[in-house]
Amino acid sequence: MLLAAMMLVQDAASLEAAGRYADAERARRSSYEQAQRRGAGTVATADAAEKLADNLAMQLRLADAEPFYRRAFEIRLAKRGEKHGDTARSLRQLASLAMARGALGEAEALARRSLDIQRGLVPAVGMELAWALNTLAEVLAAQGKAFDADPLFGEAIVIARVQGDADLAILLNNRGNNFYRMATATVIPPMFRRRAGATRSVVAPSDQDANGGLNPLRKRAFLAQGRDLLDEAMRMFTAASGADHPDVANLLNGLAANYRAAGMPVEAEARYRQAVAIKARFLPPDNRDRIVGEWSLGDLLATRPGREAEARTRLRAAMAGAMASQARFRTFDAAASNELRSYAPVFATSIRVAWRLSRLTSVRAEPIEAPAP
């Protein structure tokens, strides 16, 4: 029985490493159910609940993940107490879920509580502290406090480099995107594609004229620093997982947004296209990462003369995915409303492109008067 359980866990981990998150869910559920049967209130059950929740979070099924994260937290608080690393990790995961719901005050309180516990542990647990720093940084960035978040992202990266941790690439990605935030005064929502509490941010289109009051030289410097970090993360992800992986696609999306903000639309378009091609192979049309990919490419094409028709096709795909994604919610609650609002720019850009196309069509259809004799 123990050997079978270990094989299930190994199979699930291998599938998740390959980006096959939905395929791994069955093994994660089976492990959780076995742990429940052996003892519902045990630490082993908490660990299995967390792994199942991580898997669901990787699939962006956050409403499904939350009960399992809460179950893990309740067991750990009862068994381990407040000042334990496992309890701190659960708090961090709950902070990430609150952030995804848009409850940023709650998320910050949970993230600070988690970080305080991690800083107080002796000896300090390296990567757990790095993830606590990252989570609080993501919460602050989601509140529009990118400059306050940056030192926390930087500290997390220093720890990961010392530890030689494989997930350094996620932290590089997050700080790279934060430089984009600082350069463009953009709020980038967190995305999950990794376990909650190890959140990875994904850049969506924004007002490219915004610069947060920065002078052009400083803006270019921030974007260049961000590209360096994203390029390093890309090399790490590609070496570990291959070039055809959803995480690589999201890094390409961040690089593309950076190039676009730097005034390099050709470089941006090439990376957006690479990202969309990867996502189309791995992800269903209603997956948020894929919606963001279609939207990002469509939004860029909408600014390029003569590309309106493809822009409309891309934006229509993003709109259809956005509407289909609402089926993940059991009711139209605050979380569903928050997600739908986040897609408002997709619909606005699509309407703008459709209007421009209709104007072009009407101009072409106007009869040409013969010159007067």
Walk me through this protein's architecture.
- With 373 residues, the chain is mainly alpha-helical.
- The protein has a domain at 283-328 and 335-357.
- Helix content is 75%, strand content 1%.
- The protein has 16 helices and 2 strands.
- It has helices at 2-17, 21-38, 43-58, 62-80, 85-101, 104-120, 126-142, 146-163, 168-184, 216-241, 246-261, 265-282, 288-301, 308-325, 334-342, 344-365; strands spanning 190-191, 200-201.
- The chain has a two-stranded antiparallel ribbon.
- The longest helix has 26 residues, at 216-241.
- The termini are far apart.
- 49% of the residues are buried.
Outline the biggest β-sheet.
Answer: 2 strands, antiparallel
Residue-averaged pLDDT, rounded?
Answer: 85
**Rounded radius of gyration (Å):** 22 Å
What is the number of helical segments per DSSP (H or I, 4+ residues)? 16
Gap between N and C termini, in Å?
A: 97 Å
How many strands in all? 2
Q: How does the overall form come out from the CA principal axes?
A: globular
What would you call the structural class?
A: mainly alpha
Task: Give the strand order of the largest sheet, numbering strands 1, 2, ... along the chain.
Answer: 1-2
